[in-house]
């Protein structure tokens, strides 16, 4: 019998340690492979997107030649290419941050620092998680500043100021501490106090919190960042109220948001749940579209509500969340999970933090799946809008939105299939054209 085998039989403890070491090394390798595949796929898709957009930069697609100028088309192409280059830098930084905080020992260092304080375990756990997330946000801050004050500025979209940018950042930090801190403390307490099925209770807490925030957001959170004014245009309000009546939709009001304070991009949405639903138009959108087009855009948004798309996405998100928490409930009892990701300080907080950072590397396949269903929902909402407003009005509204937001008309098919939550412009317009005949 070989010497190594004799040692195994004589020392079972050594065998266990050896097997655990293999698991730790194996999980590290699996993690690195998952990260490498995720990065490689994203890089490959981004390069395809840039090459495709650049190849079609000098000619407006035939379906848009009467509505989009070559200058506008080239601006959209250049804007897409500029965002793509910035995205490449952001991906490299994100990859470095992930490896630094996991295998590089960043989480271990932060955990050791906070464990030096004689605080309750739950409070230390909150400090470990929030400080790590804030450090990551701080590392990402230069990219955000560059995007706002250089890239968006170059293409005429930025309306933000350094003062407003800093104010928003501080308010977001305050809300994270005031709202996220207590919820995080509750989750960590549940993880340590209610037994092996803590993840079911944690899931119920998170879902309840999500529903509460959906109800509270339009009334208490959103007004902290933007001003919402009741729609003053009487004829437009009458047209919209008639549309709401035809669709059986009841809301707490129709509001115009001062989106132009920060950006030249336009949008519309409805928010809230139950009796606290609001319809919101960006002021940039109101200034860009006529009444018929605004009605068509709102009909599309109402289509999402009537076809229960929001509910379906919430259910899908809840199922993924439950599965993820269940997986975490098992992983946090495995030594190789911590040590395979470079963490020696095993605790509920480090387990949760590791899962938050590492889990996305293993869920690459979910992205195109979710994007597929989102695009399917967009088609359904367009079909709904075509029955409650004129399809031609929605087409003209979409064309203006593509133009004003500098959205490329020629995305790479694979990139858009993987990333786009909305169908590419040409496909979406072609679908609506069939409704207009």
Walk me through this protein's architecture.
The longest helix has 44 residues, at 12-55. The N and C termini lie far apart (83 Å). Residues 1-16 have low confidence and may be disordered. A four-stranded mixed beta sheet has the order 1-2-4-3. It is globular, with a radius of gyration of 25 Å. It has helices at residues 3-10, 12-55, 70-101, 106-115, 121-154, 162-193, 198-221, 234-247, 283-288, 291-306, 309-331, 335-339, 348-358, 366-388, 391-404, 413-419, 425-436, and strands at residues 228-230, 254-257, 268-271, 278-282. By secondary structure, it is mainly alpha-helical. 24% of the residues are buried.
Spatial extent as radius of gyration? 25 Å
Class from secondary-structure proportions: mainly alpha
Largest sheet: 4 strands, mixed
Give the beta-strand count: 4
Order of H and E elements: HHHHHHHEHEEEHHHHHHHHH
Poorly predicted tracts of residues: 1-16
Relative strand content: under 5%
Reading side by side through the largest sheet, how are the strands ordered? Answer: 1-2-4-3
Arithmetic mean pLDDT: 90
C-alpha geometry: globular
The span between the termini is: 83 Å
Query: How many DSSP H or I helices?
Result: 17
Please bin the fraction of helical residues: over 70%
List keywords for this structure.
single chain, 437 residues, four-stranded mixed beta sheet, 17 helices, globular, disordered N terminus
What topology does this entry show?
Layout lengths: L2 H8 L1 H44 L14 H32 L4 H10 L5 H34 L7 H32 L4 H24 L6 E3 L3 H14 L6 E4 L10 E4 L6 E5 H6 L2 H16 L2 H23 L3 H5 L8 H11 L7 H23 L2 H14 L8 H7 L5 H12 L1
Parallel strand pairs: 2-4
Antiparallel strand pairs: 1-2, 3-4
Helix pairs in contact: 1-2, 2-3, 2-16, 3-5, 4-5, 5-6, 5-13, 6-7, 7-11, 8-10, 10-14, 10-15, 14-17, 15-17
